[in-house]
């Protein structure tokens, strides 16, 4: 009896499967659904490709424009970021459409996703703030990799800019990691030309006219040899009168963030030329007088 019932059950199951697989209308429906899914996939790929081409063209024209000068790193970073956002959005919509074709009700899914997103939003507000701030740092060209910046009173060279964090390496080797949401103040030293300022001390006994002529020769030589100098150096004149020296100031406009090196080179060139010309640079002197000499005085 049990064997007969089992055979009847499997026979009935076999007949149902056979009828289902041999149903022409079912296969037509499946074929239509598969065709629509394939069309959605192809269409999404085409839309993504067209939007990528448009974005690439826009950022190609954006290169070198705007208030802040853009370099290739900034353009590439922004282009990749926008392309990724477009790609993820289009593919997400395509997945939703495919699920709807399969017969999955999207309303409970969307409601659940909304509740989950709301919960994540409340629990990860700092993360959302970091991502939004990082996007605007990149989009507004505030700074780029390789720029020398001061962020929250920490100065260094930018190593990495992400949507969540920014890495800055100081000149002594420390690496500072800033969550983008905590960046409240940025000073960028790599956007505009900088000014090298050198104060030159000479003795009171020196002829200031001769000193200025020597400085003019040195600055002309420096402008020809130092490629970081972008404009004619200037002699501003007497800057201060010290206890034992006259301080004269010279300036030179340099490429962004190169003034430290120009300062060092100018000091070395001025010191060498002064030595050749016999111009004295004052330094502390100690005069010792014996008691006999004091008595004679």
UniProtKB/TrEMBL annotation:
Membrane-traversing stretches: 37-59, 80-103, 109-128
Record's GO cellular component terms: plasma membrane
Key words of the record: Cell membrane, Membrane, Transmembrane, Transmembrane helix
Keyword Membrane belongs to the record: yes
Pfam entry (one): MS_channel_2nd
Localization (cell): Cell membrane
Domain Mechanosensitive ion channel transmembrane helices 2/3: 84-125
Protein name: Mechanosensitive ion channel family protein
Species assigned in the record: Brevibacillus agri
Record lineage: Bacteria, Bacillati, Bacillota, Bacilli, Bacillales
